[in-house]
Design brief:
InterPro entries: Haem-bd (IPR025992). This protein is mainly alpha-helical. It contains 7 helices and no strands. The chain has 2 domains: 30 residues; 113 residues, no CATH class. The structure holds heme C (HEC). The site of heme C (HEC) has 19 residues, from helix 4 and helix 5.
């Protein structure tokens, strides 16, 4: 009796494992569309606002992946459910702020976006913590923060 019960227990866990494996394989087939465009991320913004090299480099390392029309996808973005999580961050991020769209905004909307950016950086809310786990280089140093805040302050009219 003992032996039989044990055997059953093993085959049940085997079944669960196989079902999980099948689900994991199946979800690989459903892929979100990638956020990529021919023109480099942030180019329109950099050209319009005469952004310096240093500021552009920081934004490229820390912000453009979720706030532009061009995400730089890492290898694990090919694997579900990572691709979905990333897709959600990019969609939500772009909805709030898209550097590639800033040049088409009027002065009022621009001012509000720049003020939001300053606030997010000052409050250490961006880049998202989950992004920093896999992108150590995206972490803003004190110098990076100061550069960005000074730059965006120079674009706003609320001194
Ligand atoms: C991993 C993706 C990701 C990265 C990288 C990222 N953001 Fe975001 N950002 C989001 C998401 C998602 C939202 C919307 C949800 C939220 O506010 O938490 C958002 C919202 C914002 C907002 C709007 C906040 C508001 O008031 O509603 C600003 C401004 C912003 N981000 C600035 C930045 C800046 C500046 C950087 C770089 C220093 C950056 N983000 C990096 C994903 C990201």
């Amino acid at each position: 009796m003992e032996g039989i019960r044990k055997k059953n227990a093993i085959s049940k866990s085997k079944l669960v494992f196989m079902v999980l494996l099948a689900v994991l394989l199946l979800i690989q087939l459903v892929r979100p569309q990638k956020n990529t465009k021919a023109s480099p991320a942030g180019k329109a913004f950099v050209d319009t606002f005469k952004v310096g090299k240093q500021v552009d480099a920081i934004l490229a390392a820390s912000c453009y992946d979720c706030h532009s029309n061009n995400t730089n996808y890492p290898w694990y973005s090919e694997i579900q459910p990572m691709a979905w999580l990333m897709d959600k961050h990019v969609k939500d991020g772009k909805e709030k702020l898209n550097f590639d769209e800033l040049p088409s905004y009027g002065p009022r909307k621009l001012n509000s976006k720049f003020t939001q950016i300053i606030k997010q950086i000052e409050q250490n809310k961006m880049p998202l913590t989950s992004y920093l786990w896999m992108h150590e280089g995206a972490r803003l140093s004190m110098d990076d923060k100061k550069l960005l805040i000074d730059y965006f302050n120079s674009l706003t009219d609320n001194e």
